[in-house]
Amino acid sequence: MPDPTDNNMRAATIAVLVENEAGVLARVIGLFSGRGYNIESLTVAAVDETRRISRITIVTTGTEMVIEQIKAQLDRLVPVHKVSDLTMEGAHLTRELALIKVVGRGEHRVEALRLADAFRARVVDATTESFVFEMTGNADKIDAFCALMRPIGLAEVSRTGAVAMLRGATGLTA
Amino acid sequence: MSATQHADAAALTMSGAEVVLRALKDQGVEVIFGYPGGAVLPIYDALFQQNAIRHILVRHEQAAVHAAEGYARSTGKVGCVLVTSGPGATNAVTGLVDALMDSIPIVCLTGQVPTHLIGNDAFQEADTTGITRPATKHNYLVKKSADLARVVHEAFHVARSGRPGPVVIDLPKDILINKAPYQEAPPADQPHRSYRPQVEPDMAQIRKAVALLKAAKKPIVYAGGGVINAGPEASRLLTDFVRMTGFPCTNTLMGLGAYPASDPQFVGMLGMHGTYEANLAMHGCDVMLNIGARFDDRVTGKLSHFSPGSKKIHCDIDPSSINKNVKVDVPIVGDAGRILAALIAAWKDDAAQPDREALAAWWRQIDAWRAKDCLRYVQKGSIIKPQHAVKRLFEITQELGKETFITTEVGQHQMWAAQYFGFDKPNRWMTSGGLGTMGYGLPAAMGVQIAHPDALVIDIAGEASILMNIQEMSTLAQYRLPVKVFILNNEYMGMVRQWQELLHGGRYSESYSAALPDFVKLAESFHGVGLRATSADDLDRVIREMIAIDRPVIADICVDQKENCFPMIPSGAAHNEMILGPGQEGGVAGVTDEGKVLV
């Protein structure tokens, strides 16, 4: 039971299965802005074309009471099929994809490639003075890689935001 | 287009507008409140050629929604609205938010520019679904004729089921003109793809509630608008349960009438302007049973000091209401009527008996609080006390025994109406509780009178609020609706003035109602009758005359300009810090800086 005097913030990764219809993302985002909830990241894509289902993954932070509210508010939107708080449901995988552009010459190029190798980032574009790396991982890993690249010549970052799924045999279905 | 599509198209005989009207008729719509315009002309043309649905022409789209709210709240049916695109839709927004906050079932049809012009900044184009998304329970933009009938049926289902609310259907003009297929409404037992509100309560939770209630020494039942929304049967069950247990019962502003006000177990309304006994009983109880109320800030006062020693049972059809403001011990999700039926059955199964000795002591305490007589006022001399005006209105309607419906605007008069007019039945009291919309009462009364042509319908108003939708006097005249407007005229936005007096050093910034119209002449110019009472001696005569006239009446009751509304829990204070009127204990001090921030 959430305790209103508990001001401890926690992160929550919430998976939401929704009708793939116009306006559904606006409803979800409007709910967060209208009620003052945080969005750390939000991703959305169709996952079942025949049944017209999309999956939204939201990473948010709040007190236990706020997270409970977020789930209840999401669940009462008409086109929402299912809301699952992966953080509470158990062990889950979180992955994010990032494209990272690093610009530099000489020693900086060598160092960038060496670090990319250590982080298992792939080179997907190269010129004589730049690389674009592609990497997949959780947010912390991408943060760490970007921090290392900053003094070397970090020029641009594009990230997808997190997608997530429970470990094990249980599947989330609408 | 393929050959089969051609064949299908040839078989279509109805225009989109006709499909919309057919679906409304199949959904049981008898009356629609609206205002025409370019984008909805096809629907107006179809309305002209049929007799099943009556159209009431309002004078402003906001009033159309409030009228539909009054209709819905007084009948339990879905209220229906028809407005044009652009300004028609934006004018309706206040009414939609009002219905959203108070959980009133509304379906609002809005016109839209033709699909090929959407997004082009066309004449009278507005992003209606974008604007109304946070103003509705759900909304639709119909872009394919094939979806039209299904969407209308679904809109009614969404509006009336679960926690009721307003639903907008945005209808591009080409969709209304083109031929469209008709489909019957899906069978009631066919579940929606994604929207399935929980109606039946969890019996394990019901048993936990019964265990708490039967052990309670200082229980209270706190019932709200959810009981009204669950239908008159829910109010009967609430009354049964409260009488079975012998517990005290309080109602929220939205719940007035859910439990009979004349019953000795009723301790009055609770909250900011609730009774002393209701608020102290809430503060001091050991078990609270909340049915269909949402721990609104007007009810709880300072949250950290709200009913500190009690176990709380919260019954609500909307899971997001639970643990939103107040942490509860036993949440029960479901329809208020089903929950009450289950509670009664479980209470009987358990052969539960309340702790009679403890309960008797609790009632002695409550009666001691009651003895404060917190709603006491002194009517002496010729200046009419506003409380006295409402009390006499109530007493005279009682004496006449007419079926009476009350609507209100928003402000001091609204609170006095809630305090001094007793409601023994549900659906007789229409007020803007959540949004607090000045201008609600007159159009709402119009909707009530349409639904109940022979009843006495009175809008208890203030002179400031009434001017916000005064144009509807013209609608009353057109449809010969004998609505009575009972203005408690103190020449101030009274609640604003009261707060300025209590919180802002008596600096009455912009709260004086200057340059008021002559309400008697105003009524006459709108083909109604105007009456005025300036002295206490006039009051009864004016009330009786107002009721006797079978036409729209404005009764301008000139009341004490300085009267404040008490009791009052100041902003940011707890229930046990409420202030009583002048001459009673408790001053007007005690509003903290923290409290001043609150509305």
Please describe what this structure looks like.
The complex is a heterodimer of chains A (174) and B (599). With 174 residues, chain A is of the alpha+beta class. Chain A contains 5 helices and 9 strands; from the N terminus they run βαββαβαβαββαββ. In chain A, strands 5, 6, 7, 8 and 9 form a 5-stranded antiparallel β-sheet that branches. In chain A, strands 2-3-1-4 form a 4-stranded antiparallel β-sheet. In chain A, a hairpin with a 2-residue loop joins strand 6 and strand 7 (130-137). Chain B folds into 3 domains: 11-177, Thiamin diphosphate (ThDP)-binding fold, Pyr/PP domains (Rossmann fold), CATH 3.40.50.970; 203-370, Rossmann fold (3-Layer(aba) Sandwich); 386-558, Thiamin diphosphate (ThDP)-binding fold, Pyr/PP domains (Rossmann fold, 3-Layer(aba) Sandwich). Chain B has 599 residues and is α/β, with parallel strands linked by helices. Chain B starts with a helix and ends with a helix. In chain B, strand 15, helix 19 (473-478) and strand 16 (484-489) form a beta-alpha-beta unit. The model of chain B is unreliable at 1-7 (pLDDT under 50). Helix content of chain B is 39%, strand content 15%. Chain B has a 6-stranded parallel β-sheet with strand order 2-1-3-4-6-5, sandwiched between helices. In chain B, strands 9-8-7-10-11-12 form a 6-stranded parallel β-sheet, sandwiched between helices. Chains A and B meet through helix 1 and helix 2 of A and strand 5 of B.
